[in-house]
Structure formats: C-alpha cells, structure tokens
Specification:
By secondary structure, this protein is α+β, with helices and mostly antiparallel strands. It is 35% helix and 37% strand. Strands 2-1-6-5-4-3 form a six-stranded mixed β-sheet.
Amino acid sequence: MKRTFFIGLFLAASFLLNSCDTQLNDYQAKNENEKQIIAVLNTYLDARNSGNLQNLQSTFHENGIYISGRGREIKASEIVNTKPEWWTSDGEVKLYDPEITINGNKASVMTTAKYGSYSTAHIYSLINEKGNWLIMKVN
C-alpha cells in the first residue's frame, strides 16, 4: 500500500513539475520584436533537429558563432561545412521557458534546452539588422 502511494505521489509530482514548462512554441510574445525572435529560434530548432545546414546557417548573422557544450566554436560561415549528424546526434532539442530581453537592436534569450531527459541552460544573443533578427551567438 505504501509503495503504491509513493509511486503515485512521485508520478503526480513529476507531472506537475514538467507541466510548468512553457515550450518556445507556446510562448506569448509581448510585441512584434519578440514574435520575430521566437520565429528565428523556431527556424533554428527545426533546422538543427532535421540537420538542414543551409536553413541553420540562415538563422545566424554573418559574424555569428555557435559554442557547443564541449566548448567547440563554429563560425556561422562554417556551419554548412559541418556534418548534419553533429547537430542531430543528441536527439531532438526543445527550448523551454524563454526569457527575452531586448535593448535597442540587440536581444538576449535565456532558455532551458532539453535533449531527451537532459536539460541545460542556453543563451541566445541576437541582433536586428535591417529589420531582421539574426543569431549572433549561442552558448
């Protein structure tokens, strides 16, 4: 009886904790800039998760850089020269709980990235150039 109670309690707690996350797609943008930033990040995720290197590169500013969790730096111009498996090997990436800060033509988005059961903090730095938001740095 006690075992069933604790299993039920654990499952209920897990459900409640996980249900508090706001996935990037469900984020309610406060203004047009936030809508555009969310759109760029969704394009980035779709391209990364599918291994579409051209689309992935298109989300970065020409001077942009990606820094992997292992410290590897990849310039935006080098993305198309990488292997799709490098981007997809950790499984599907999902972003949760975005916190967007916009200061003029620059923005910072702090999120939780989930790779299956693994989670880590990610910071996306973006710049608005000629009316388009582009990623300057991911780490």
